[in-house]
Write a structure and sequence with these properties.
The complex is a heterodimer.
Chain A (H helix, E strand, L loop, with lengths): L1 E2 L2 E2 H12 L2 H6 L7 H12 L6 H22 L11 H26 L4 H23 L6 H21 L6 H21 L8 H7 L2 H24 L6 H24 L1
Antiparallel strand pairs in A: 1-2
Helix pairs in contact in A: 1-4, 3-4, 3-11, 4-5, 6-7, 7-8, 8-10
Chain B lengths: L2 H4 L4 H14 L5 H12 L5 H10 L6 H26 L3 E2 L2 E2 L1 H5 L1 H19 L5 H23 L8 H26 L4 H28 L2 H4 L5 H4 L5 H6 L3 H10 L8 H13 L2 H19 L7 H15 L3
Antiparallel strand pairs in B: 1-2
Helix pairs in contact in B: 2-5, 3-7, 4-5, 4-9, 5-7, 5-9, 8-9, 9-10, 10-16, 16-17
Classes of the chains: A mainly alpha, B mainly alpha.
C-alpha cells in the first residue's frame, strides 16, 4: 500500500528487520506493529518538504520503535502472580528487557544521522506518556471524560510530538479521535476473547461488569465516530490515502458489529 | 581508606551533579516523583559521575558540559536498576525496598522509562556526534548484555569467555563509556579518550568480578540482600564457574538448582562453604587483579595530573575491596 509516497509494507519490513532478535522472538514472540499509527505517521511525515527521504523513513521507523517499546512494557503484568508457569514468568521478565532494547535501538538509529532534536522530541514524548500512564494508573476509575481523555493522550502523544517536530498539527484532532476509537475497539475485542484488558484491568477486577463496559464503550465509539466522520469530510485532499484507510477501517468495524447483531 | 576519600576534592563537583540529578527527575506525578527520588536517595557510589569528572579533569574541564554527561550516565544506570529489580523480583536494593516492592511492576516500568527519557532529554542538549554515537552504542550493548545474562540463567555449560563478555556488557561498558565521554567532553584527543575507555573497561571488569566474589564472601547485612543471591537468581558468576570445574560440586549444584525456589538458607550456606573450599575465590581475585594491572598500565601515557593519580588510587582501592 502506498501512502503519501511512503510504502507501508516496506516500512513494516524495515521495522521487523530492525527489531529482529532471535531469542526475544522465541520467548516473547514478534512484537505487534500498530498499523494505524504507522499509516498516520507516514502521512504526517511523507509530504514534509524539508526532510530527505532517508530522514522521513528514519523518523517513521524510530517513532514506531518507541511505540513498540512502550507497548512491550505495557505487557508486563501489574503484579506477578505466584501461580503462573515458569515459561510465562520468563516471558514476563524478558518483556522488560525487550522494551529497553527496542528503546535503545531508536536512539542508536537516530544518533547515526546526528538527529539530536528528534532524539529529544521522542524522549520528551516518552516522558510525557509515562506521566499520563501514572495518572491513569492512580485514577479512580469511573469511565468518565477525564479517563477517556487520558487514554487518548497516551495513545496519541507520540504522534502529536512528531507532528510538532514536522510543524504540522492539522491531523491532531482526527488522530486523537481515531486512536481512542481504535483503542476501545481493541479493548472490547480483548474482553470478548477473555483476555486481560491492560487499560481496564483495575476496574474490571473490581466490578466484573464486562457488559456494562461494552455498552458504555459502544456509546463513546458512536459519538467519536460521528466526530471522526465530520473531520474526515473536511480533510484536505493531500491526505486522501489516510482518509481511505480510516474509512475502510471504520466500515470493517461497522460490518463486524452488524454481523454480531445479525447472529444475535 | 574508603573509596570516596580518594576523590574527596571532587565533593563540590559531585554535590553539583547530585543536585542536578535531583532536579532532572522532578516528575509532575507525585508517585513518579517519589519513586524516582527514592531511587536516587537510596544512595549508590555515583561511580560513573566520578569517572566522568576525573577523565574530564585530564582535559579542558567545563563543569556545565561534564554535568550533562555525568547526569545522563547515572540516570541510564538508575533506569536499568529499576527494571532489573522487576526481572529479579527483588524486594531490596542497598537494604531498602525496591520500586517494584513499594509500588508494583507497572510503576517500576513507568519509572525506568521516565528516567531513561529524562537522560536522553538531558544528553541531547549536547550536539556532539561522538557523544551520541558512543552512548547509543553503549545503551544497546548493555541491553544485549542483559538479554544474554537472562538467556544464560542456570546454564552450567557456559565458559569463561561468555562470562567475561557478559560482565563487559553488564558493568564494564558503562564505566568505560563514562571515562571516554568525560574525555570527549573535555576535548581530549581520540587516542587519549580511547585509553580512558580502556582504563574504564579494565576497572569495570575487575569491579564486577569482585562484586561477584562478594556475593559469596559478604554477609547479607553488608550486601543488603541475601548472600549467594546471584546464584539463586541463576547467574553463574566467576567463582561458580571456577568451582564447578570440580565435577561432584557441579553435579550437586545442577541437581539442587533444578528447583531454585526451594533452596533454603542453610543449603545456600553449605554451598558457599564448599565453594570457598575449592579455591575459586582466590582464583577470581587473581583474574580481577590482572585487569587492575592492565588498567594501571593504560594510564601511563596520560597527562600527569592529580586526576590521573586518583584514577590510579581507585584502581588500587578496588583491588583491595573486601566488602
Amino acid at each position: 500500500m502506498i501512502t503519501s509516497g511512503m510504502d507501508i509494507q516496506y516500512l513494516i519490513k524495515q521495522i521487523e528487520d530492525k527489531i529482529n532478535h532471535q531469542y526475544i522472538e522465541q520467548i516473547v514472540g514478534k512484537p505487534h506493529i500498530d498499523e494505524s499509527k504507522l499509516v498516520i505517521l507516514a502521512n504526517l511525515v511523507g509530504r514534509h518538504p524539508s526532510l530527505s527521504e532517508i530522514e522521513k523513513e528514519k523518523l517513521v521507523i524510530t517513532a514506531m520503535l518507541v511505540q513498540i517499546a512502550l507497548d512491550t512494557h505495557e505487557q508486563v503484568p501489574t503484579w506477578f502472580k505466584p501461580d503462573i508457569s515458569n515459561k510465562e514468568q520468563e516471558r514476563n521478565h524478558l518483556r522488560v528487557l525487550a522494551g529497553d532494547y527496542y528503546s535503545g535501538l531508536y536512539y542508536l538509529m537516530l544518533s547515526e544521522i546526528d538527529a539530536f532534536d528528534l532524539i529529544r522530541t521522542l524522549a520528551s514524548a516518552i516522558k510525557e506518556i509515562n506521566e499520563y500512564k501514572m495518572k491513569l494508573y492512580y485514577l479512580d476509575y469511573n469511565f468518565n471524560g477525564e479517563y477517556i481523555d487520558i487514554v487518548k493522550k497516551i495513545e496519541a502523544l507520540l504522534i502529536y510530538y512528531v507532528a510538532d517536530y514536522v510543524n504540522d498539527s492539522s491531523l491532531n484532532e482526527l488522530v486523537g479521535e481515531w486512536l481512542i476509537i481504535n483503542r476501545l475497539y481493541n479493548e472490547k475485542q480483548n474482553i470478548e476473547d477473555h483476555k486481560e484488558s491492560t487499560l481496564l484491568n483495575k476496574w474490571l477486577h473490581n466490578n466484573s461488569n464486562y457488559t456494562s463496559f461494552i455498552s458504555h464503550a459502544n456509546s463513546i465509539i458512536q459519538t467519536k465516530t460521528d466526530t471522526l466522520n465530520e473531520l474526515l469530510d473536511v480533510l484536505p485532499q493531500q491526505y486522501g490515502s489516510l482518509k481511505n484507510y480510516l474509512n475502510v477501517k471504520l466500515n470493517k468495524e461497522n460490518q463486524s458489529k452488524a454481523s454480531i447483531v445479525e447472529e444475535g | 581508606m574508603k573509596l570516596p576519600k580518594t576523590y574527596g576534592y571532587l565533593k563540590k563537583d559531585l554535590d553539583f551533579i547530585e543536585a542536578a540529578l535531583h532536579q532532572t527527575i522532578q516528575a509532575e506525578h507525585p508517585v513518579l516523583r517519589s519513586a524516582s527520588t527514592e531511587l536516587l536517595d537510596a544512595g549508590g557510589k555515583r561511580i560513573r559521575p566520578v569517572f566522568v569528572l576525573l577523565a574530564a579533569r585530564l582535559g579542558d574541564f567545563d563543569l556545565e558540559k561534564v554535568k550533562k554527561v555525568a547526569v545522563s550516565l547515572e540516570l541510564i544506570h538508575m533506569a536499568t536498576l529499576v527494571h532489573d529489580d522487576v526481572i529479579d523480583e527483588a524486594e531490596l536494593r542497598r537494604g531498602k525496598p525496591t520500586t517494584m516492592k513499594l509500588y508494583g511492576n507497572r510503576v517500576a516500568m513507568y519509572t525506568g522509562d521516565y528516567i531513561l527519557a529524562r537522560a536522553l532529554e538531558e544528553i541531547t542538549t549536547l550536539k556532539d556526534s561522538d557523544v551520541h554515537h558512543i552512548l547509543a552504542k553503549t545503551i544497546v550493548e548493555v541491553c544485549v548484555g542483559e538479554i544474554e545474562q537472562f538467556k544464560d540463567k542456570f546454564n552450567w555449560d557456559q565458559n569463561l569467555r561468555s562470562y567475561l563478555r557478559r560482565i563487559k556488557r553488564k558493568t564494564a561498558l558503562l564505566i568505560a563509556t563514562s571515562c571516554q565521554l568525560g574525555a570527549v567532553a573535555a576535548g581530549l584527543t581520540k587516542a587519549e579518550a580511547k585509553k580512558l575507555y580502556k582504563y574504564g573497561y579494565y576497572i569495570g571488569m575487575s569491579y564486577q568480578i569482585i562484586d561477584d566474589i562478594l556475593d559469596f564472601t559478604s554477609s547479607a547485612k553488608e550486601l543488603g540482600k541475601p548472600a549467594g543471591n546471584d546464584l539463586l537468581q541463576g547467574n553463574i558468576t566467576l567463582p561458580v564457574l571456577y568451582a564447578i570445574q570440580n565435577q561432584s560440586f557441579r553435579t550437586h549444584l545442577e541437581k539442587l538448582f533444578k528447583h531454585p525456589e526451594s533452596v533454603s538458607g542453610i543449603e545456600m550456606n553449605k554451598i558457599i562453604n564448599t565453594l570457598q573450599d575449592t579455591g575459586s575465590i582466590e582464583m577470581s581475585y587473581s583474574l580481577s587483579n590482572q585487569y587492575l594491572q592492565k588498567a594501571l598500565r593504560t594510564l601511563d601515557e596520560l597527562p600527569n595530573r592529580r586526576a590521573k593519580r586518583t584514577l590510579q588510587d581507585i584502581a588500587r582501592y578496588i583491588g583491595k575491596r573486601r566488602s
